[in-house]
Amino acid sequence: MISVVEVLEKLVKTKLDERGRIYIPKEVRERLFIKQGDILYIELEGDCFTVYTGKAIVKRLTRFSS
Question: Among 10, 54, 8, 58, which residue's Cα sits nearest to residue 32?
Fold first, then answer.
């Protein structure tokens, strides 16, 4: 069972600007090797969404096709 502390350690707080853009902090961009202009994918599930890098979505889709 995952603890509240473990969940909180993975969360990154960010803001939505007036144009609807989400700011991705530098530490997150560096860790995921994403840069300006990279294409990201959003998966909607209920009242949540997950953002995937191109590499991550390929990996996810490969699991479904096996």
Answer: 54
- Which token pair is 36? 């300006």
This prediction has a pTM of: 0.72
* Residue owning tokens 């853009």: 21
What are the chain's domains?
4-65 (2.10.260.10)
Cα(23)–Cα(40) distance, integer angstroms: 13
> According to the model, what pLDDT value does residue 66 have?
65
Span between the terminal Cα atoms of the chain, in Å: 28
d(CA 48, CA 61) in angstroms, rounded, equals 20
